[in-house]
Write a structure and sequence with these properties.
The chain is of the alpha+beta class and about 475 residues long. Helix content is about 45%, strand content about 10%. The protein is globular and about 70 Å long.
């Protein structure tokens, strides 16, 4: 190609490129500016499902986009990296038991004024309104997830082996009401169904992974009349009641009635039950609707699951109760707390919160009076099932157990949790594990101050007794 033609071609290309660039620049004027973001940090993607369901509505209604932060798998100790991070979030999704820790670290904005001006606050059940949302006389969280523990069992399995059980024990095989019955039934229903020498169905399983295994011990211990502390914050966990509760749990684990060496977290425990590997399990109430969910959970037990109250040592003692749950709080560092509150108020409102536990895609549980008056099928195949579910949850909220909502409450339970683990794998005896727990609890109490902790503990006990006496009615 001649030099003149080459120069002419280059000149034409420059003109074309220039026109193209000019056109692109002109189009940028038509692009809408990016919406301001509200960032949310949560323990899991599953916990954010309702936000994602309402994302477009929130964007349109409040003129913001939501930004999500969460670990790859449900994380019970989100604070391990959160407290070491310089990143700023607007909304914290917290386990209520951790609320005191966040308040003590001056991370949360008091919500008193916001909540006083919010419609529907009186619709929130006292057990959540007074235990979940408050600390030190102020509101710091808005309840988002109720989280009630129930006992789930395979109706078909109980029916199949009823005659054999009755022949052995002289009574029908029905859902256990005491822990003695629970352990007996768990051992009885552990089966090699196909005769190949391997167990196909285990009687039960517990949460064996870190952080929440303390609940499976505490429900036994508290239902026996056990207390965490006396009036002066001296630990009572190492008492005869504590040792019996832990030894019974160890014996159950050693009996072969639970999957060997299982370190199940919440997802694992649900999966094992929903895939037909367990005859019964204590879990949060959303497992009821997950039993009909093939899409997310691959359930193999549709129409085969029943639910009832968690066992207790005596009929009038606490059964099950409200464990973990979630509240939404606003960071003191948020640049737009008013907008953050509008989103929190919207997502926890009567109308939107109802959508959560009617969906199989969320992990939210009832926490409002109005949630218990929902007619129709709800998340279930029939109206009868929906009403049975709601009535069972209602019953579980009378005289309930609950997480220890005092400064260091999560630390106390994590010390217990780790020592339970050491006992379950026979690194410590039950007595050694609970003695070690008591020693660690004394150190935590010293850190916060004995008199101060005793006052907080008494207040928590009074509140727990008060909310347990509230009848759910409309």
């Amino acid at each position: 190609m001649k030099p003149g033609r080459l120069l002419l071609l280059l000149f034409i290309m420059l003109i074309i490129t220039g026109c193209s660039s000019s056109k692109s620049t002109g189009n940028e004027k038509d692009v809408q500016p990016a919406l301001p973001s509200i960032s949310i940090i949560a323990d899991s993607e599953q916990a954010l499902a309702l936000f994602k369901m309402e994302e477009k509505n929130i964007e349109k209604k409040f003129g913001v986009r939501l930004e999500y932060h969460y670990p790859d798998r449900l994380n019970d100790n989100l604070e391990d990296f959160l407290f070491a991070s310089d990143k700023t979030y607007d909304i914290y999704m917290l386990f209520p038991a951790k609320l005191p820790e966040y308040v003590e670290r001056n991370m949360l904005l008091p919500l008193d004024t916001y909540i006083q001006q919010t419609e529907g606050i009186e619709d929130i059940l006292p057990v959540y309104r007074n235990l979940y949302m408050k600390f030190g006389g102020h509101d710091y969280g808005m309840v988002y997830d109720g989280d009630t523990h129930l006992l789930f069992y395979r109706k078909d399995v109980f029916e199949k082996y009823n005659d054999e059980y009755k022949k052995t024990y002289g009574k029908d095989l029905t859902p256990p009401k005491t822990w003695k019955e629970y352990d007996q039934i768990a051992k009885f229903l552990t089966r090699d169904i196909d005769g190949d020498g391997k167990i196909d169905l285990f009687g039960t399983a517990i949460f064996g992974g870190d952080a929440k295994r303390y609940i499976w011990f505490a429900e036994r211990y508290l239902s026996m009349g056990g207390k965490y502390f006396d009036s002066k914050m001296h630990p009572q966990i190492q008492s005869e009641l504590g040792m019996k509760a832990l030894q019974d749990l160890i014996n159950l684990n050693d009996s072969g009635a639970t999957p060997p060496n299982s370190m199940y977290d919440w997802i694992d425990l649900n999966t094992a039950f929903l895939h037909g590997k367990l005859a019964m399990v204590v879990q949060w109430s959303d497992t009821s609707r997950f039993s009909y969910d093939k899409k997310n959970w691959g359930s193999k037990v549709q129409n085969k699951v029943g639910w009832t109250l968690v066992p207790a040592a005596a009929p009038n003692n606490p059964r099950g109760g409200v464990w973990i749950g979630r509240v939404l709080g606003i960071s003191k560092q948020s640049a737009n707390p008013d907008k953050a509150w509008k989103i929190i108020s919207y997502i926890t409102s009567k109308e939107i919160s109802k959508k959560a536990f009617l969906s199989k895609d969320t992990i939210n549980d009832p926490f409002r009076y109005s949630h218990f008056s929902i007619a129709g099928k709800g998340a279930f195949p029939t109206e009868e099932m929906n009403q049975n579910f709601l009535e069972t949850v209602k019953s579980s909220l009378n005289n309930p157990n609950a997480d220890l909502m005092i400064p260091g409450g999560w630390d106390y339970m994590q010390a217990l949790d780790q020592n339970i683990y050491l006992a379950l794998i026979h690194k410590k005896t039950a007595a050694e594990a609970l003695k070690q727990t008591a020693d660690e609890w004394n150190n935590i109490t010293k850190k916060y101050g004995q008199a101060r902790q005793a006052a907080h503990y008494q207040e928590w006990q009074n509140l727990l007794k008060e909310v347990g006496n509230h009848e759910i009615h409309q």
